[in-house]
Amino acid sequence: MRPLPNAGAIAATACRLLAERLDGSRVQYSVVEGGPGEEVGHALGEHVRRGVGMPPRYPFAAFGEGVVSVMRAGRTLVIRDVDTDARIAPSERGAYRSVDCLSAITVSPVKSGRIAAALTVQHDKPRNWTDGEIITVEAVAERTWAAVERVRAEAALRESEDQLRAFGEASSDVLWIRDAKTLEWVYLSPAFESIYGLSREEALSGDTWRNWLDLVEPEDREHARAEIGRARAGERVTFEYRVRRPVDGQVRALRNTDFPIRDAEGQVARIGGVGHDATRERAVQRALEYSERRLRTLVEGIPQLVWRAVDHGHWTWASPQWTEFTGQPEVESHGWGWLEPLHPDDQDAARAAWEHSKATGLFDAEYRVREEATGEFRWFHTRATPVRDQHEAIVEWLGTSTDVQDLREMQERQGVLVAELQHRTKNLMAVVRGVMVRTRQQSENLASFVATLDDRLRALARVQGLLSRLKDNGRVTFDELIRTELSAVGAIDAEGRGERVTLDGRKGIRLPSSPLQTFALAIHELATNAVKYGALGQPDGHLTVRWRLRHEGEEPRLHVTWIETGVAMPDPDAAPQGGGFGRELIERALPYQLGAETTYVLAPDGVRCTIVLPVSSTMERDDA
């Protein structure tokens, strides 16, 4: 049976020879599958001399538990007469008669606690089997079992080697097998040539271990040698190293997985290995790491709080800026933890904004966040957009929170300034209209009207110039106003000095802005009249202006005293000079518009005027 090509031929030949030797009606060799109680025979070879053949597949249970139990025990089953054998129940005899079996010898090798095969010789009549016949069947069964298993093992080995070869030839990774003692290659797959840049013939010639080491970059050789040594000692190892291709000098990065292959005694006989070209993966990984570093630098460098979230509001990450600003550890911001630093009055609104984002696909909200360094809450404008996968499903949200506290304060100030501008413009127009009316009434002709109106409008323009240049909501101080007007009529120089003028008062007393035009126009009229008719227009005249801030009751009040001396006054019965516009402003307009207390007296040597003006407690400048 040794030269026979396969297990089926061996089984069929053994069955034929045994049937001829014993004159049996039928001989069958079957392999058996299934454990105790579930055994099924699969015919591998059969020879029929008389009667019908056995089914190619049959359950053992059909022939009765009494006979199968003998087979499970590894004993030879001898049946001389099916009808009289006590182990076969009457109900089970039909299975034997259906295949013309009235007597039989069955030998069943038992391996690992179960029936592995069965060689049965059957006769179509009762038969008193001799001991010699029984011994013959047992001997043939043993030899057939050994031959069949040998051929099946050889076939399985060939199939395994063919599969390995096919796998190795198709694989883009290098597959190899080394001898564990010499570390020489005994198998090398074709992918070696495309990765290493060296033919297999060259690699497998001479000292193959040295051939491989020479390809490894010098800096990586010791590491590679050590890892192979670990596999040689019985470990499974994965390691990376670089090789230089002889064909073009390129350097490739490889990732090896080496593992021990043991023999029947459990000793490491060979070392198997898989080599993967990781050059492109390493390049992609380096590019990804560089990109991540750039993104991290950008995210951590921008003056915003950056974060990531899932499930419409559950944070998964917060940038260092968040921790630095709020003092909340990054891990505590996860989930809904980020709400903790928010102002209690804004937390529900923040949650509601997330609910709204489900419909809009955009998170946009403003809320206050507590700053750890100051303990104050600052306004932040927060926006987030979803990151979607290829199916447009939301994977996560990326968001930023921008500090808009200064912007909101600026917008609030801007609103105040716009309202203030509207109010000032309205007042200014009323003042201009009043000036035009009074100037027209007091002018003798058109030329006089134009000259006087131009002078008074210039005074108003100077006040507006002061307002436009100043910060702090456009508050003008009294010392700036008086110097501007006296400088405009040439009474003092740019440093505030004049030979015939004395200014006595503190700097920095702010004036209310709303009725400032009227007050400034009154000062202008006093200065203009002083030039035309009074102390600034006569050789012996002198002007003294004093001002004090006095606290009287709930509000401070500015006391201004205008004193002209050395003036040759006209006869008391003469017509008034200048038309009286300035005096009208002082005695009527200022009390009405500013709530001021005023006096205006024509003394023997010049004008005496006092103005007591209420100012706010915030009208004193810090540098006053």
UniProtKB/TrEMBL annotation:
EC number(s) from the headed UniProt entry: 2.7.13.3
CDD domains cross-referenced by the UniProt entry: PAS
Example of a GO MF term: protein histidine kinase activity
Record-annotated PAS domain positions: 160-235
SUPFAM superfamilies: ATPase domain of HSP90 chaperone/DNA topoisomerase II/histidine kinase (SSF55874), GAF domain-like (SSF55781), PYP-like sensor domain (PAS domain) (SSF55785)
Signal peptide: none
Keyword vocabulary terms for this entry: ATP-binding, Chromophore, Flavoprotein, FMN, Kinase, Nucleotide-binding, Phosphoprotein, Photoreceptor protein, Receptor, Repeat, Sensory transduction, Transferase, Virulence
Catalytic activity from the UniProt record: ATP + protein L-histidine = ADP + protein N-phospho-L-histidine
PANTHER family registered for this protein in UniProt: ETHYLENE RESPONSE SENSOR PROTEIN, TWO-COMPONENT SYSTEM SENSOR PROTEIN
Name recorded for this polypeptide: histidine kinase
